[in-house]
Amino acid sequence: MASTADFKNGLCIEYNNDLYVITQFQHVKPGKGAAFVRTKLKNLKTGKVIDNTFNAGVKVNIQRIERRPYQYLYNDDLGFHFMHTETFEQVSFEKSLINAPDLLKEGQSVESVWHADTETPLYCELPAYVVLEVTYTEPGLKGDTSSSTSLKPATLETNAQIMVPLFVNTGDKIKVDTRDHSYGERVK
């Protein structure tokens, strides 16, 4: 058990029988009345962010979570299969636990977050950017090499579809933002 004085960004707590991470907090001592703590809590299962106010000194259950490095192997009917990079233990995750499953490439490194007490996976996160090859896109028009306002659809090596600038061609390697599936830049 901990109190509101122990709050810090990234702290995982149990609230309403669910796991939340504190993303923002502020201790407030008004001139009149009792002190309180305003927080923004992110649900680890749904990703939803809620605002909550705790009275100062309230006791909360701190939960231990662990970040573990994994490498993507393959996927089948049973789920997405990963190997722990240090122990070589293999695990399978449901598609719903992965933030961008359509951008996973064999051998891709990911970070998985586990609830340490129950040994259950909470979510699996790709790096912010991944480098993928464009397997198909319509050819760009001559003279459209620096235009960033016009976009065209492109299919990546993982069969994901994203929008890319007109100067990107089939065979180019590009950086893709895994958070919003947006084009980052071309990679040599």
Keywords for this entry:
five-stranded antiparallel sheet; SH3 type barrels; 188 residues; 54% strand; OB fold (Dihydrolipoamide Acetyltransferase, E2P); 3 domains; 0% helix; six-stranded antiparallel sheet; mainly beta
Task: Explain this structure.
The chain has 188 residues and is mainly β. The chain folds into three domains: 2-62, SH3 type barrels (Roll); 65-125, OB fold (Dihydrolipoamide Acetyltransferase, E2P); 130-187, Beta Barrel (OB fold (Dihydrolipoamide Acetyltransferase, E2P)), CATH 2.40.50. It has strands spanning 2-3, 12-15, 18-28, 36-43, 49-55, 59-62, 65-76, 79-84, 90-93, 109-115, 120-125, 129-137, 151-156, 161-165, 173-177, 182-187. A six-stranded antiparallel β-sheet has the order 1-6-2-3-4-5, with no helix packed on it. A five-stranded antiparallel β-sheet has the order 9-8-7-10-11, with no helix packed on it. Strands 14-13-12-15-16 form a five-stranded antiparallel β-sheet, with no helix packed on it. Strand 10 and strand 11 form a beta hairpin.
